[in-house]
Amino acid sequence: MQTQTREQAIFSCGEWVHLQETFDVINPQNGITIATVPKATGAFLTEVIERTESMFRQKKSWATHERIRVLARAADYIEDRAETYAHTIALEGSKTIREARAEVTRAVTTLRISSEEARRMHGETIPFDQRPGSERRHGYYMRLPMGIVAAITPFNDPLNLVAHKVGPALAVGNPVIVKPASATPLSALLLAEALEASGLPKGYLSVVTGSGQELGPVLAKHPSIKMISFTGGAEAGDQLAKLAGKKKLSMELGSNSPVIVLKDADVDDATSSCVDGGFSAAGQNCIGVQRIYVERERYEEFVRLAAEKTQTLRVGDKLLDTTDIGPMISAREAERVEAWVEEAVAGGAKVLAGGKREGAFFEPTVLVDVPPSATIYHEEVFGPVVLIEQIDSLEEGVAKANDVNYGLHAGIFTASIDQAFYAIEHLEVGGVMVNDSSDYRVDAMPFGGVKESGVGREGIKFAMEEMTETKVVCFRMK
C-alpha cells in the first residue's frame, strides 16, 4: 500500500467536520506526513460537550437491544476491514504490521464483549426484611448511565485502548467524547467510522483531535462531563485529577513492571517470555517487562539466554512481516531512552545487547548491574530496555519488586505453588502472572494498578460498572 497524505475530518456528534487549523500526523519511521487532522480549540470542544449533553437529554434512553446490535455490527465492520485498520495502526504509530494485526483482533474482541456484557448489566434484589420492621418492604437496585464520559487515550494502542473506553461507555448507554493521542488519532477516527456505519445514534460519540494541554482541562472542568477515563503518564494524570475535582476518575498511569525468576523455573521459557514481554511495541507498553530479578543459581544462564535471544530480534521497517521491532513513537522519545541508558552505564551498568539509537529506532537493550540511583532503575522507561538483577531469595525479589512507586502487573516463574502464592500475596500490584511475564492481558479481565499506577479498573464489565450510577428502589407494601 502506498503512503498518501490525506485531509482527515474529525467526528463531532455524528458528523464529520473539517476545521481551519490542522496538524500533521507523521510516520515516526521516516518522518513522512501521512495525514492532516483538525486541531480543535477549547471553545470548539465546549460546543461539542454542550451539544452532546443536549442530544443525550433529548433521547432520554437507548434500548439495550439497540446497543447490543450497534456494538456487534461495529466489531464485524472492523473485522471485515482488518487489514486497513492494521495498516493505519502500523503507519501512524510504532507497532509492526504483525503487532497491529493482533491489536485489530483484540479491538474486535473488545467490542464483541462490550456487546455481550450490555445484556448482563443489571442490578439485584435487596432483602429489606433484614432489618426488623421492614418485613413489608421489597426492592432492588439498578445501574443507570451516568452521562458523558471523557476518554483520553495514548498512542501505544491507538485502536484497542480507545475501544476499551468507548465500548463499555456505549454498552451502558453513555455518550462518550474521545480525545486521542495527537501522534495517533487516525485509528480512533476509524473506530468512529465503524460505529457510525453500524447505526450509532447521533450524539453518542465524538472524536476530537488537538492539543492535550488545551483540550484536557476543558474535559476535566466542564460540569457536563461526569467521568474521565484516562490512560497516560502519571504527571498528566495528577494534573487532570486536580482539575477534575469531584468527577469520577478511572486512570491507568503506567508502571515499570517486575518479573521474578526463581531457581526452579524453566529458564528457557522464562527468557523467551521476558524478551517478548520487554520488547514488543518497541517497549512502549504499560505492562511490558522492565525489571527482571533472577535467583542466583540461574542468573548466569538467564542473562546469557536473554542476551542471545534479544540479539536475534529484527529491527526495521514496521510494515514488513519479517520485522520484530519498529521505531519508537518519535526520535525525541528514543533520545530520552538513550540518555537514560547512558546515565545507567555511566553509573556502572553493563550493556549485554543493543544500546544504540538511530533516529526513532532504539535497539532492544539488555542491561545488568544497573545502580539504584539510575533513573531507569525506578521510573518507567517506556522503551525497549530491560534490567536484569541477581537475587538470593523470593523474599528479596518481592521486596525489590515493591520498592518503586508503581504497581500494575508483575510476573513470577516458578515450579512451586507455595512460592507462587507467596508472590501473589505479597506483590503490590493489580495483577500477578504466574509462569508468564507481566505483559499478559485478556480484554475481559479487570485491569488496573495500585500506587502511582492508577485508580479504578478497566476490562469491559468492570469499566461498565465504573461508568454507571446505582439507584435503589424500595416499595413499602400495605
Automatic annotation (TrEMBL):
This protein's UniProt keywords: Oxidoreductase
Keyword Electron transport belongs to the record: no
GO molecular function: lactaldehyde dehydrogenase (NAD+) activity
InterPro entries attached to this UniProt entry: Ald_DH/histidinol_DH, Ald_DH_C, Ald_DH_N, Aldehyde_DH_dom, ALDH-related_metabolic_enz
Pfam families: Aldedh
SUPFAM superfamilies attached to this UniProt entry: ALDH-like
Residue ranges constituting the Aldehyde dehydrogenase domain according to the UniProt record: 16-473
Family of the protein in this entry: Belongs to the aldehyde dehydrogenase family.
Protein name (Swiss-Prot/TrEMBL): Aldehyde dehydrogenase family protein
Natural source organism: Paenalkalicoccus suaedae
